[in-house]
Amino acid sequence: MTVDSQAEIPSPKTSSSRPKRRFEMWLGIARITLREPIKRIAGHVAILVIIAAGIWAARMGFGTMSVAAEQTSDEIEEQSSVNVSVPEIVELPSFAAGGLLLEDEIMRSADIHTVLRDRPRMDIVKYVVQSGDTLFGIAEKFSLKPESVLWANFAVLKDDPHRLQPGQELNLPPIDGVLHAWSTGEGLSAVAEYYGSSAQEVIEWPGNHLDPDIDFSDPPIEAGTLLVIPGGKREIVTWSAPRITRGNPAVASILGPGACGSVYDGPIGTGVFIWPTPLHYLSGYDYSSVHQAIDIAGSTGHAIFASDSGVVVYSGWNDWGYGYVIVIDHGNGWQTLYAHLSAINVGCGQAVFQGQVIGAMGSTGNSSGSHLHFEIMNDEYGRVNPWNYLP
């Protein structure tokens, strides 16, 4: 019986020979690649091509490649010259932005719109006070502390928040600190030191536009120039009444015609305070470092009560912006002040008792509306927060 040795070898034209031909084609391409002049990566490229071809053939489901993988490079070259066929068109991965784009990869599109942070303000801004503005609201709007607004506008506000009125033009510094109006003959070091800053900080602030090599002792700064003193501070000038004792009430004469000449002894307070108004909530400024009192709500004509017993040591008009004022000394280290009154019912040296009507609420002096400006002072602690002492 004659055995046909060619019967077991599939014809090149049969479908079972396609994986072999494709693999041979890939190996032929690898061989050609090795002939390129890129010698230092040739070995790596060949390995990658062979691995890629094997993976591709395996995924296509055309059987094993173990026999073809054992062929020598000479056999591959000889077979590739004989078994020439037109390769199928395979869709290759696309490239985007210089890299391989996978099927499930989302490309980031270029955004030509860039959001820039707000640049810090360097110069002094002029601001016209609007109806409804408050010192604290303006400060918050320009990211400043209330003190910085007062310090920058002493000529207008006199360090008194109650002086703020619509139509006023304020200077608002770019940062917290002090604005100093330069005077002829001043020294830069002395001015900066007075406000707790340094001449170098003043010079380095770009908005001051000063020469870095300026003479500290005699700088060529024009009189009236406003300089920003970064981080500078000064004491707030208080327009409230000084401590008026029963023994020397005339010390308050600087406040206005309401000062008393002499006061006799009278009742001593309990040290416990009651609300001086019918309403018990805020209307206006709260207690703070620039407003050491509370503005209590109410209407013109509402009764004002003595918060504790004592003796009247000031009764009348106040020239510093508080309008009609009553001050009661309680004889135990405490004193209370009632401002912006529309009427006064008690006079100098008069004894008053807790809960007694001493006047009427109003809006006199530097006031934008009817309320009671109420202060509590202690000999040891100074002006305290009334919220901590009212029931």
What's the shape?
A: elongated
Order of helices and strands: HHHHEEEHHHEEHHEEEEEEEEEEE
| End-to-end C-alpha gap | 125 Å
Low-confidence stretches: 1-15, 62-73, 79-87, 92-111, 113-117
Please give the number of β-strands: 16
Q: Major sheet: size, sense and barrel closure?
A: 7 strands, antiparallel
Number of helices: 9
**CA gyration radius, whole angstroms:** 45 Å
Query: Number of domains in the coordinates?
Result: 3
The chain-level mean pLDDT equals 80
In CATH, the architecture of the largest domain is Distorted Sandwich
Percentage of residues in strands: 15-25%
Structural class: alpha+beta
Helix content: 10-25%
CATH topology of the largest domain: Glucose Permease (Domain IIA)
Given this structure, which CATH class of the largest domain is correct?
Mainly Beta
What does this structure look like?
This protein is α+β, with helices and mostly antiparallel strands and 391 residues long. It has 3 domains: 15-87, no CATH class; 125-230, Roll (Membrane-bound Lytic Murein Transglycosylase D, Chain A); 249-388, Glucose Permease (Domain IIA) (Distorted Sandwich). The chain has 9 helices and 16 strands. It has helices spanning 18-34, 39-60, 66-69, 73-82, 135-141, 146-152, 154-157, 188-194, 199-204, and strands at residues 95-96, 99-100, 125-128, 169-172, 177-181, 226-230, 294-296, 303-305, 310-318, 323-329, 334-341, 343-344, 351-352, 357-360, 372-378, 382-384. Strands 7, 9, 10, 11, 13, 15 and 16 form a 7-stranded antiparallel sheet that branches. Strand 1 (95-96) and strand 2 form a beta hairpin. The termini are far apart. Mean pLDDT is 80; it is low at 1-15, 62-73, 79-87, 92-111 and 113-117.
